[in-house]
Design brief:
Length: about 375
């Protein structure tokens, strides 16, 4: 297998050797794009989550926007083929059952595994037949897996071998409300979550409702969506979750309704969220009167959070927005990867600093 052809000014020595399995999917492609820009990663292999043809396609044939970035091919995924590359880290952008089968051998070989499926997110093995239609055979790994929301589990992620990268819907909810529940600001009333996801959340497989001329705003999975137990597990709240399909390609917008205790005021809510996220590079608490939008976070690893409070009803509305393929999948995985290997957390995410932008304007570069 060939390595990537993208070039950097710094020497490519002592880099972390990474493999992506499921590279032909939307989240897998985003992973490849980030890792190719990551100056401390050597992307050594790409695999499909299903069997590939005898002549494995080049990655840039599947996704032509990567022409000139890499000459890697997407090979059939087998444990032996992955282990033969001797990677330090493997990203599994694979179906749940595939991750369930691949992760144990990779972990046994001492490889750090970042799993973007739900195969290791729920701590109770008995929940898998109900919510994911398969029997979980590795409860020991469920106990060891670390839930990969960087902003809330950073210390555990830094020492984890198996990181269960959260789902896109749960990320938008957990980031927005877990600090409030943990601080005791909410009552025991059910928390209502209405979320809308872009069509890419359904993956690349062919489905009638995902076709260009068929897609429409509509609810689905009412009272039965598999991400609900993940939200309840990670927030500790009684979650009533209704997902919606939106007529756009990528992004998630969640609107969350909570009842607060009678003594709580909006300032308390903002103080808790500011204390948690003020220094976080990828979470932004918006000012009063400002609201998140899908367009504002598309293509970024950010989660934007806005809120409003009705003191008469003690009712709080929190809205959050993120890109389901980045902060809800690939971006979050790379953020966790950076923490795990001791790299700067923002590495791989190209964004100019305010200081750099100011300097460019002052010097006339942008004039």
């Amino acid at each position: 297998m060939k390595t990537s052809t993208i070039h950097f000014d710094s020497p490519r020595e002592n880099l972390c050797r990474a493999v992506v399995v499921g590279a032909a999917g939307y989240s897998g492609a985003e992973l490849v794009g980030i890792l190719l820009k990551h100056r401390l990663v050597d992307l050594i292999g790409l695999f499909g989550s299903a069997a590939r043809a005898d002549q494995p396609p080049r990655f840039d044939q599947i996704f032509p926007r990567f022409r000139g970035w890499t000459d890697l091919h997407v090979h059939a995924a087998t444990t032996a083929a992955i282990l033969a590359l001797k990677p330090d880290a493997v990203f599994l952008a694979t179906p749940h059952e595939a991750s369930h089968d691949l992760a144990p051998a990779l972990c046994a070989a001492g490889i750090t595994v970042l799993d973007l499926s739900a195969a290791f997110r729920l701590r109770d093995a008995a929940a898998y037949p109900k919510h994911y239609a398969f029997t979980h055979a590795h409860p020991d790994l469920l106990a060891r897996a670390v839930y990969g929301i960087a902003e809330l589990n950073r210390a555990a992620i830094s020492e984890a071998q198996l990181i269960a990268v959260p789902g896109c819907y749960p990320t938008s909810v957990v980031l927005a409300i877990r600090p409030l529940i943990a601080a005791g600001l909410t009552t025991e009333a059910p928390i209502i979550v209405d979320s809308t996801s872009g069509v890419s959340g359904a993956g690349r497989s062919l489905a009638l409702k995902s076709l260009f001329c068929e897609v429409s705003q509509q609810p689905y999975g009412v009272f039965s969506h598999r991400h609900q137990p993940e939200m309840a597990q990670e927030t500790g709240g009684d979650i009533i979750f209704t997902p919606h399909l939106g007529p756009f390609d990528r992004g998630i917008l969640s609107t969350i309704h909570l009842t607060l205790r009678p003594t709580v005021v909006e300032g308390d809510v903002r103080a808790i969220l500011n204390a948690r996220y003020a220094s976080e590079p990828f979470v932004t608490l918006l000012k009063a009167g400002e609201w998140p939008s899908v367009a504002a976070v598309e293509g970024s690893n950010r989660c934007d959070i806005g809120l409003a409070f009705d003191p008469v009803r003690h009712h709080l509305i929190v809205c959050s927005a993120l890109d389901n393929l980045l902060k809800g999948a690939a971006g979050q995985a790379v953020q966790c990867f950076n923490i795990r290997f001791g790299f700067p957390e923002t590495l791989g995410f190209a964004a100019p600093s305010i200081a750099a932008s100011t300097q460019s304007v002052a010097s006339g570069v942008n004039s």
